[in-house]
Amino acid sequence: MNEEEKYLFDLRGYLVVEDVLSPRQLADANAALDHHGLWEGENKLDYRLLKQYNPYIANAGPLHTTPRPVRSLIGHDRVLPYLEEILGSDLRYDEGQVLYARKGAGALILHNGNTPWEYPPLSYQVRDGRIYGGHLIAAFCLTDALAEHGGFAVVPGSHKSAFDLPDAFQSWEKTGDWVTRVPVRAGSVVLFADTATHGSWPWAADFERRVVFCRYTAGMVQHTSPAPVPEDLPDGDWTPVERRLLRPPFAWHFQQDADGYAERQRTSVRSAEGWVMTDHSGQIIPRADDGTE
Ligand SMILES: O=C(O)CCC(=O)C(=O)O
């Protein structure tokens, strides 16, 4: 994340990263999502979880059990550096799904915000010049969503708001310039802090809207249950980075076996050698050598 991106992300709670997907990646991902049958009441792509609020919008997943190349977005190398910077390099993938919407899909209520401060490990914080995003969402836009089409809605700055979102704003009963449209071209990613108040504008375009949502947390945090693991898709052909991203949450791992006691720290997605034994002897208070115990 360069200086300008960091400034904007901190200021607004979201950032648009353009042209993340190559034309090939975009075409392949869209081809894999065609012929889903959802508008005809079918589930031709065999999604295991389907959340269909109404006949015009569906959330399908879980993402990590879908076929490639859609599932490959979880560890996309253009997005990982942003995630690592904000969540730490031991981050984990927490949950994800494909959003399909067609004309007629109404607004999704505005939700979340810094207040009430319900989940400290998931909240947005800045300490010593570093952003700690808590719960970060990468929305891979597989179709355009320009201002006239609708799509992602956000209240910029609300990831730091000190007061509750008023009910009439949440329900869209009252709207105004506090809620923003975020026009995006297909292939871009909207990266946003889950604590930023967000929702959807009604979908007004004649073409189908498609977004792949990948949600991440710091390595010791879990937002959604059950935690996704590689075993959910035994023939998943997971890459080493994906396996690390799909590791259940923890910070430290204690183990006693024939080789003795080992204490391991969660490793970064960049560690080629796998788990690394961390020497914590510095934490043990040495015995005084004056004869006293
Ligand atoms: O339509 C969007 O992009 C936002 C969807 C959303 O708010 C959500 O999935 O929680």
CATH class, named Mainly Beta
Number of strands: 16
User: Going across the major beta sheet, what is the strand order?
Assistant: 1-11-8-13-4-3-2
Question: Low-confidence segments, ≥5 residues, pLDDT <50?
Answer: none
Domains (count): 1
Structure explained in plain terms:
With 293 residues, this protein is α+β, with helices and mostly antiparallel strands. The chain has a single domain, classed as Jelly Rolls (Sandwich). The chain contains 5 helices and 16 strands. The chain has helices spanning 3-12, 23-33, 80-87, 167-170, 240-245; strands at residues 14-17, 49-54, 57-61, 92-101, 108-111, 125-127, 130-132, 135-141, 151-154, 180-181, 189-193, 198-201, 209-217, 252-257, 260-265, 276-277. Strands 1-11-8-13-4-3-2 form a 7-stranded antiparallel β-sheet. Strands 5-12-9-10 form a 4-stranded antiparallel β-sheet, with no helix packed on it. A 3-stranded antiparallel β-sheet has the order 14-15-16, with no helix packed on it. Strand 14 (252-257) and strand 15 (260-265) form a beta hairpin. The longest helix is centred in the N-terminal third of the chain and has 11 residues, at 23-33. The radius of gyration is 21 Å and the shape is globular. The termini are far apart. The structure holds 2-oxoglutaric acid (AKG).
